[in-house]
Design a protein that fits this description.
This protein is mainly β. The protein has 2 helices and 8 strands; from the N terminus they run ββββββββαα.
């Protein structure tokens, strides 16, 4: 049933005809890391890279129109394990994360025309103590990658888009010692 679908669904999704279109859905478990995030804490000889490691379950669904072209994709993810680490100090900060990512394609079948909306909660909390970093709320990105909307505390956007290095101060401090 996946023949003629543009773009084709991933292998873990199964498809069925519904009305004039097709719906493909599936779930998978993924794990990764540790991988270098390329986020650097500190300067000089005390500087270190943050590494990320995680495991999550993903549920995905794709909606195709009567011509077999993708019109919308929705992905739900729940992390059962997540942690940032500083291997040099042996320090880790676990995190929890749940998110829903919705892509709506203005031109059916063309991911380059997708507007992406994400609602998420990502909390970094050392084994003992209060959270040291938070990324939660809603974001909307245009097809060209431009940020169209943001709400809630968005620590990663503060750092990566706004260039506010202080957004990571508490997280870096928690990872600087074991």
């Amino acid at each position: 049933m996946t023949q003629g679908l543009t773009p084709p669904p991933p292998d873990f999704e199964s498809c069925k005809a519904v009305g004039a279109g097709v719906i493909c859905a599936g779930a998978r478990f993924e794990s990764y890391g540790p991988v270098d995030t390329e986020i650097v804490c500190g300067t000089g000889p005390d500087a270190f890279d943050i590494f990320d490691q995680g495991a999550f379950e993903q549920h995905a669904i794709r909606y195709y129109n009567e011509n077999g072209n993708l019109t919308r994709r929705v992905i739900h993810e729940h992390y059962s394990l997540g942690q940032f680490s500083n291997p040099l100090a042996g320090a880790t900060v676990p995190y929890t994360q749940t998110d829903t990512i919705t892509d709506v394609l203005a031109v059916p079948g063309d991911f380059g025309s997708a507007t992406e909306t994400e609602t998420a909660e990502n909390i970094y909390r050392p084994a003992h103590g209060a959270p040291v970093f938070l990324n939660a709320g809603r974001t909307v990105f245009a097809p060209d990658g431009a940020l169209e909307f943001r709400s809630g505390p968005q620590g990663f956007l503060d750092f990566f888009i706004d260039g506010d290095a202080s957004a990571l101060d508490q997280l870096c401090a928690a990872l600087s010692s074991s």
